[in-house]
Amino acid sequence: MSAEDSAGAGGAGHLQGSARDIDSFLEMLEAERGASLNTQESYRRDLKKVAIFLGGKRISLRQAAAEDLRAFLGRQKDAGMAARTVARRLSTIRQFYLFLYTEGWRSDNPASDLDSPRQGRSLPKILSEKEVDALLEAARRKEGFEGARLVALLELLYATGMRVSELVALPQAAAARDPQVLTVRGKGDKERIVPLSEAARGALKDYLAARADILPKGKSSPWLFFSRSSSGHLTRHRVAQLLKALAVDANIEPTKVSPHVLRHAFASHLLAHGADLRSVQQMLGHADISTTQIYTHVLDERLRRLVDDHHPLAKGLLDPS
Description:
The protein is mainly α. It has two domains: 100 residues, no CATH class; 181 residues, hpI Integrase, Chain A (Orthogonal Bundle), CATH 1.10.443.10. The protein has 15 helices and two strands. Strands 1-2 form a two-stranded antiparallel sheet. A hairpin with a 5-residue loop joins strand 1 and strand 2. Helix 7 packs across helix 11. It is found in: Cytoplasm. It holds the Pfam family Phage_int_SAM_1. It comes from Limibacillus halophilus. GO terms for molecular function: DNA binding; tyrosine-based site-specific recombinase activity.
């Protein structure tokens, strides 16, 4: 019997209690930390997995002991979960139990001594400048509203390094009067200013003209990239789908292309052309510069491969005499 079946057979009450505590935790995250809906859902998914595992043992999240939480993390590792995923779930567990302890709902914190899994430092995937150019060329070959929107999405992602969630949530007013910069609302509801390139401004202007033509007469939308979705604007998932379809047209492996990969490309290409790390940090909206420093490692790795592949010493092509 699976953990889910076991929990359903005898742990329904424990799951209900766990669900109430999860809701209280998420309410705190929203009220005190300004956590976005996406962040809250990520925490909910992780905690629900823990609750289902504990429900199989007929205990709730609030009743768990340190050994129960270690057993959950061990099960994750045994199931082949990536160290990064296990580490994220551990972080969620630590924050949740600190919340229970702070609220006085537990007299101890069973997560305080849990060990983090070892993680290799993975470098972000990026596209080359040539591949980004190929994507743009493929987008410009498309006509009408769909083509103008695709070029604008691509140019804005690559010119600003915005997260796709920030892009799709841009209000229509953000693009008024041919803006030189965009005000972006990022994680924790923090605002930052990002400059627009001439190419991005041109793409935005063309899109706005096509947008005005496609909107029904007398209708308007507060969103820059409106759609018929429940939110009223393009979803992150839809943007990812559009980019993967575009990758096929550009003869690029679709698995290489995503909105976040374009964010990585923005940062790496800026640094490669001499931008300073602090400016890139501000444009990406990273709270800590150590997060931005990963892109210097990307460049170091590219330079190492360049030497390995092309330097004569690396291939023994120089005369040792």
